[in-house]
Amino acid sequence: MDITTNKKTGSDAASPSRGELFLNRQLSTPVKKPPKNRKPVTPKPSASVIGCYGCGAPLQTTETDAPGYVDPETYELKKRHRQLRTVLCGRCRLLSHGHMITAVGGNGGYSGGKQFVSAEELREKLSHLRYEKVLIVKLVDIVDFNGSFLARIRDLAGANPIILVVTKVDLLPKGTDLNCVGDWVVEATIKKKLNVISVHLTSSKSLVGIAGVISEIQKEKKGSANVGKSAFINALLRTMAEKDPVAAAAQKYKPMQSAVPGTTLGPIQINAFQGSGKLFDTPGVHLHHRQAAVVHSEDLPSLAPQSRLRGQLFPLGSDVEGDNLNGVTLFWGGLVRIDVLKVLPETCLTFYGPKALQIHMVPTVDADEYYHKELGIGLTPPTGKERLEHWSGLQSVRHLEIKYEDHHRPACDIAISGLGWIAVNPVTKQSNVTSHSTNTFKASGVLHFDVHVPKPVEIFVRPPLPVSKEGGEWYEYQDLTEKEEEMRPKWHF
């Protein structure tokens, strides 16, 4: 999800911001323009189409089981009094009462799921931003950093400056040094070659960091149109309402928040700024590679962490004979299977994800039988026999060869899209490697795993995220020149 702010040049004496300076340099370089017979700008949504203020779906009175449905009598009454913009559709009313209803057909979703927006459709809807002078605010979930990053974001952003907002930092393990996390995010962002001018670590729940984002937007923008996630927009409204009566009034009809994917189905306009500025919440994006796209809607809450993450370490003491994971399979609920093929005797895995997903350990030779026996019972989600009927299983297998060179820090993270990550530690902190012979312990080498997930869930191997107190101890900052430091985006929390 992204927030975009149209920026109009003016005659004021204020000095240009860093984003404007960068954009002006980019615009001075000749850029290949699209053919004249093609229109580069995608038509924007018509203001004449009235949508539900909770999800943005066009209001309709015919399909009772589809998004946007309103009782015909209510619709006519509100229309007569010109109050359609205050109408909440039936689906949003259910969501507001805690029901888990997706916008996708199947998995407990509505039959009207065709209104759900895919990542490709969102790119098409927002493709005009590439050719406009805008500020983009991109939101990324720190718990699912890789999975929540919309692929090929450069296709949308073009040369425009980006403010990167990292959400849910309040869920990181206790003792985490946010200095290390901020630097880690900047390093990951630089590799994506995006024009990120600043990074903000935030929590929409506790409002941590929100004021800093508002300040940055106000410094960079000179116009209207914002687009972003519903939770973040609600947090913005709450913070702005303290000083802005317009934002305070806008809170009455704010977008619907829900744990289900695709809560927002159409652009939602919010009068949140004094003057001509408008706020827009974009349609939900169907990222098919996340775990939320394959589980039943009623199992979705089990994928959403509600409190600080606590790493679950394996093996635990005498759980494995000889403290050796070789030949062992770990099940993370019914969603992930990890076969440990070849590791060091001291190797351990630390799981970071929702508490509702239990981890089970069995010998690999018994793994297939155990999975079929316990799926839906001990291995959940999926939960129950009814949901097992539509479960396709762990069809995708990826072999990982993980190199390590430093036993004082994790070798990497294995991130599961839409779920969490597993830190791979070649040697546990408690291990006394000097007591092992050189044949047992090697300063560098390769660890081998097979990771099974449902199709089309993605697996990412990335540099380890420095969490908990230990992360601050092993994390190493890059040695940068003064010029390199100046060019790097600054991060805030």
UniProtKB/TrEMBL annotation:
Coiled-coil features, chain-numbered ranges: none
Chain residue ranges for the region called Disordered: 1-46
InterPro entries for the chain: GTP-bd (IPR006073), NOA1 (IPR044229), NOA1/YqeH-like_C (IPR048422), P-loop_NTPase (IPR027417)
Polar residues bias (residue ranges): 1-14
Pfam families in UniProt: MMR_HSR1 (PF01926), YqeH-like_C (PF21516)
Span of domain G: 223-289
Chain ranges of the NOA1/YqeH-like C-terminal domain: 347-436
One example GO MF annotation: GTP binding
SUPFAM superfamilies in UniProt: P-loop containing nucleoside triphosphate hydrolases
Name of the protein in question: Nitric oxide synthase
Organism in which the protein naturally occurs: Acorus calamus
